[in-house]
Amino acid sequence: MPLNLVLVADTHVPKRARDLPAQVWSAVESADVVFHAGDWVSATHLEEFRRRSRLLVGVYGNNDGPELRRSLPETAEITLEGVRFAMVHETGQAKGREARCEARHLEADVLVFGHSHIPWDTTTPRGLRLLNPGSPTDRRRQPACTFMTATVDSGKLGDVRLHEVLRD
Q1: Pairing assessment for the beta strands 75-80 and 83-88 based on DSSP bridges
Q2: What domain count does the chain have?
Q3: Torsions phi, psi for 153 (to 5 deg)
Q4: Tens digit of pLDDT for each residue in 69-90?
Q5: What range defines the domain where residue 28 resides?
Q6: What residue range is the signal peptide (predicted)?
Q7: Which residue from 156, 137, 158 is spatially nearest to 146, judged by alpha carbons?
Q8: CA neighbours within 13 Å on the CB side: how many for 116?
Q9: Could you tell me which of 165, 157, 91 has the C-alpha nearest to residue 129?
């Protein structure tokens, strides 16, 4: 049976938004596994994710203070249905990203990251899939706020989708 995943990053609650849009919370609550690639901003927001998620995998970001850094790792790794995931907040500039990520995450099949608020979905020459879900609360220079969903089944990542966040 496939696992349903939700990928988010850069939620910045309560600085960029008071809360996540209902569409995002609904996706989180129905997912088997939720990945959050940092910049939560408040420990209360982390606790709300923990409460609403069946399984939460998270890392801290550059806007996360000491309390969140004590609660979350800088890098997370998990294997789901034979697919090896790694997650970090920041991967550096876009130029050269694939080569840097391949060198740093040799064992991973998928790297989830955030920081830029720019959705990203590429595959490196070695086959490492790089996924940035953007931000569901702060679109910056993007046309819309976003998050991602995906599935994992029988050792394969599939059905990766970028979702535009609808305004509540």
Answers
A1: antiparallel
A2: 1
A3: -150, 130
A4: 999 999 999 999 999 999 999 9
A5: 3-164
A6: none
A7: 137
A8: 16
A9: 157
- Section 41-63 average pLDDT: 96
- Band the pLDDT of 143: cuts 50, 70, 90: confident
In three state form, how does the secondary structure of the chain look?
Answer: CCEEEEEECCCCECCCCCCCCHHHHHHHHHCCEEEECCCCECHHHHHHHHHHCCCEEECCCCCCCHHHHHHCCCEEEEEECCEEEEEECCCCCCCCHHHHHHHHCCCCCEEECCCCCCCEEEECCCCCEEEECCCCCCCCCCCCCEEEEEEEECCEEEEEEEEECCCC
Average the pLDDT over 154-166 and give the result: 94
Comparing CA positions, the residue from 2, 31, 37, 32 lying closest to residue 156 is: 2
Contact 84, 107 (CB under 8 A): yes
Take residue 162 and report the two structure tokens written for it: 């970028």
- The domain that contains 32 carries what CATH number? 3.60.21.10
Q: Shortest CA distance to 89 belongs to which of 102, 105, 76?
A: 76
